[in-house]
Amino acid sequence: MKAAKYLLIIGLLIVIAVAGLAFYLPKLNGYKQEGSLTLPGLSEPVRVVRDEKGMAYIYAKDLHDAVLAQGFVTAQDRLFHMQVTRMLASGRISELAGEKAKDLDVRMRTIGIYRNAKKHAGILNERTKGFIQRYVDGINAFIKTRPGSRQIEFSLAGVQPEPWEVADSLAVAYYMGWITSGNLSSEILAQMLVDKLGPDRASELFPLNINPDEEGARSAANTTTTETPCRLNIGADKKIVSYLDDSPHGRGSNNWAVSALRSPHGKPVVANDPHLDARILPGIWYPCGIITPELRTVGVMVPGIPGMVIGRTDRIALGVTNAYGDCQDLYIETLDPNDSGRYMEGSESIPFEVKEERLRIKDKKSPGGFREETLQIKYTRRGPVVSGVLRGMKTGRILTLRWAAAESMGHNIGLEELLKAGSADEISRGLKNLNFIVLNFVFADADGNIGWRVSGKLPMRTQGDSSLPYAVKDGTDNWKGWIPFEDMPHSLNPSRGWVGTCNQKTVTKDYPYYFSSQFAPSYRYIRLKELLSGKGQLSADQHWEFQRDIVNVMSQAIAPVMAKALLKHEDTREMGTILAGWDCHDDPGKAAPAIFQRVYLEFLHLVLEDELGPELTGSLLRSGYFWQERMQRMVMEGASQWFDNKSTPDKVETRDELFHEAALSAAKEFEASLGKNPSRWLWGDVHRIQFVNALRRKGFGTSLLGCGPYPMGGSRETLYCAWFDNTAPFEVTVSASLRMVVDLGDEDKAIAVLPGGVTGRTFHSHMKDQVEPYMRGDKVYWWFSDKAIKEHRASTLLLNP
Question: What 3-state class would DSSP assign to 726?
């Protein structure tokens, strides 16, 4: 009895302690949401209404005051998030993470994101600079006037908030432009294959890019080269290969707009789910509303950038995907054999321009806890030298990087115009100035127009195709101007009644310019076409379900072939039977998706590794966009010299033999963790996603500060995106960073959910409260009308001049 009494007391104490922590910890990292505060710079009071999710709706007399308040409330919720993003973009993350982040900082300094941002800030026109400055002033007002409300993350990370500048906002914008650019990685992979195999054999693995809207599109590859590429031995340069660590493989998105005739409310519908690595809480996007007498908008923006890039106003709706336009080139340079400080352009010897940067690296052993290192960055006329200092380069050549965003700076960046746009034409005018990022914008307006247009600047190249690094032979510039904005891919009010993109190839064979050599495989777009074809009306709820569609189009082609091969053998017959009966839905409660993905992965290793080796095979397999369509063609044709294992010269292996061998390897892997019964190898048991806090990404406390792991359906090939790294299967790394459906006929709300929450404050109730609805597919809303905002008001803060 006495022992039971003690256990009861201990239990009660634990309950009290947990309840106390639950009550106290959110207050420890809270901020003022009710009452009033002073915000210097306002001309009139601003009212900030927050809803049940903590989302702020800013009521201001004009946009001038509203943007100032947007900067302030964003800093309330996401200042640490903004600080980390700024440090990452500026090549300063080793100030937080120490030596392990040094290589990343060197890469970012070499790319020059912050240098470009500083330069761009200096040439903006007064209106554009003033628009960003108002937002910046709001951030700085929070830093200066609310020191007691700063996030505890600053203290825990050992950094202090720093005053924000216009260049910092531009650096965040440039960083987003950089991480959504894919062709640098594609060029590196292509060159590595040429180095390993020679140009003819390498071309057999080059991307097979398909525009699913073109008849007979699968009959020809997109990638061709106009001259014989040189061998560069790029694989010997670890610094170049390390650029693949930050490559945007798998980052994509889905978006579409459907005409008013297909909507029950008689207005267009826009849907968007941008795919990024959104595992770090509270997520990439910051949602808020801006309401003035002239404007009403709800949507998201990357913290640190003003305005709205995805969302709706009372007149328009916008959504984005990655267009994968080729805005990057690598150049093969030649060092002057007589002077290592110079490079050659034909017979002309030119001195490198050298810029010096100082790295500040966290180091407990150094005085003050930091040490400094000097970084020298060399430049040619084309851009910075991105290869190591000739390490492994026996050819005497080096590589430089050219990025269109660094050369296409304008006096306006289009953000204010997008925010204020009231029609399809005004959206296009705003996008004309959005040069730092290449995106597919889909949009609709209240007049019933729907459209799609690509933003960004892309060069016209003398060599046409730019799949491989360009060898510099003389002083001639191979960039001969920019593709005119009017000629960038676009569509307005097509007869089929919808527009949509899933990162697939959108340009047609008769497009007069080289656009890119890297696109997503066609699977998601093919499925989208299936869902949107027809004449019936589609509700917002139906579009929401489309975003969670788990039909795998790739497996519809390959799984029957795989199943037939496995059914031939007793030791894989059960796996073959499961695959043969599969409906090709990547359901987490089914075994077939797990068997299909694991067998296919093992098959790919068998196909490639004997000729490429494990390291290059791993680099290639991380880039699904590079090989997926090409490998499917090999599988469906049934015969390829790639199926023969070169390490067994006395035998010629077939496709089906490799599938059988792959299945045996897959079974061995699954049996070790899931048991011997193939029907118990469930997709959701291996395909999982975990959300983590930036302060604790691994080890003890990860689950406490984050959440999950959660079983997840879908895959890389489904509209319900759940991308995993082939070198570390099957942990989900890339998924929808937002799901949004806007029916312009619904005056009260938009459906939208984040895989995290509004605020970036650890222990706060709105840091991860949307994760569970996100995983379940529950509808969450951005409120739009005054009536709806009032009904869902949780707090009101008055900001006074």
Answer: coil
**Residue 750 bridge partners (DSSP):** 782
pLDDT at 228: 62
pLDDT tens sequence across 589-605: 999 999 999 999 999 99
Neighbouring residues of 484: CB distance < 8 A, sequence distance ≥ 6 = none
Tokens standing for 641? 């010299």
**Could you report the per-residue pLDDT of 533-554, keeping only the tens digit for each?**
988 899 999 999 999 999 999 9
- 56-59 and 286-291 strand pairing: parallel
Phi, psi of 110 (to 5 degrees): -65, -45
Question: What is the rounded CA–CA span in Å between residue 219 and residue 213?
Answer: 13
Kindly report whether the peptide bond that precedes residue 709 is cis, defined as omega within 30 degrees of 0.
yes
Helical H segments across 570-701, by residue range: 573-580, 592-621, 624-637, 655-674, 683-686
This prediction has a pTM of 0.93
User: Of 254, 362, 265, which Cα lies nearest the Cα of 720?
Assistant: 254
Q: How many CB atoms lie within 10 A of CB 119?
A: 14
User: Treating both helix axes as pointing N-terminal to C-terminal, what angle do 113-121 and 166-179 enclose, rounded to 10 degrees?
Assistant: 130
Give the strand pairing for 397-403 and 310-313: unpaired
For residue 344, give the nearest of 328, 330, 332, 355 by alpha carbon.
Answer: 332
Classify each residue of 260-299 as buried b or exposed e, where b means 16 or more C-beta atoms within 10 Å of its C-beta.
Answer: bebbeeebbbbbbbbbbbbbbbbbbbbbbbbbbeebbbbb
* Spatial separation of the C-alpha atoms in residues 392 and 449, rounded to whole Å: 56
